[in-house]
């Protein structure tokens, strides 16, 4: 029986640029069934990744995995299909993920690259039906001699390096490959966004960050006072704030637990029903938000062989798939993801935002108080395109 490898890569960089008030005219997001299913699947995976991580600083693109699961599903066995369908949240997910892959492929590649690649071993051919499925996801399809491990790894890494503009290097080691590998599926998500809201480098200073109730470290912390979208969630025990990107449709949402040690509880609740309902409760704050946000740079390597069974997906490692490689049954032998995110004030320039909040006249003419949003303890973050979560992560800091 042949082996099949899932390899997924995500790289995202958040940069800063002047605020453009046209953002508020563009902000017409709608919650969709696909967005909701991505939401719940994302938070379930993030919880498991967080629980398994040693330092608890995690970045992942569950969507990257979902796209490959959807593609693999077209050739998978019966029980595997049932597990994937249950996790992805509906019987018609293949059409939805095909459409999403096509739509993302047509977006500005300078902002977002979503790329799929299928390699089949030189001695095999893909089934015609799987080739057609791969092409419908805008996947490139090529042959590769996995037995020549060094050369095969170099070819794969060259593709990953190109698609991530040099930010993910050598994700595939020759030791991962062998002549037993019949095919490999790859997905890369690359995102580079520019803040609408300017962070000035000269305002960044060392501030206390409470890793735990007992442990405090100093972290370079950015500062911003701005009218932002904001919400409070008694159900989660957290507050949320949104940072829009200059690129249309993209935004980052910070979910800050009310308690220093509240992140595990927030993750547990989010894994049950997702976060999208809370994100759609974000509204203009009505006054300036005084935001303090640490700069962070996280790299993660996730072993989906360990995580997927915790999500109810194990049969793809056991049940032969007959619909992928012609005249050959395969199982997935390895599934992993390498990802990183960098959030800082790079590229900030002077900018201004002017907004008018119309309120009923009152005899009390005192300006509305500012809302402090001090991100000084472990938190959760999301980056979305419209209502689809591109990636999610947790930040706990390091000593």
Automatic annotation (TrEMBL):
One of its GO terms (molecular function) is serine-type endopeptidase inhibitor activity. Residues 1-16 form the signal peptide. Residues 43-398 form the Serpin domain. This is Antichymotrypsin-1 isoform X1. GO terms for cellular component: extracellular space. It comes from the Eukaryota. Belongs to the serpin family. It holds the Pfam family Serpin. SUPFAM superfamilies: Serpins. InterPro entries: Serpin_CS, Serpin_dom, Serpin_fam, Serpin_sf, Serpin_sf_1, Serpin_sf_2. Gene3D superfamilies: Alpha-1-antitrypsin, domain 1, Antithrombin, subunit I, domain 2. Keywords: Protease inhibitor, Serine protease inhibitor, Signal. CDD domains: serpin1K-like. The gene is LOC118265780.
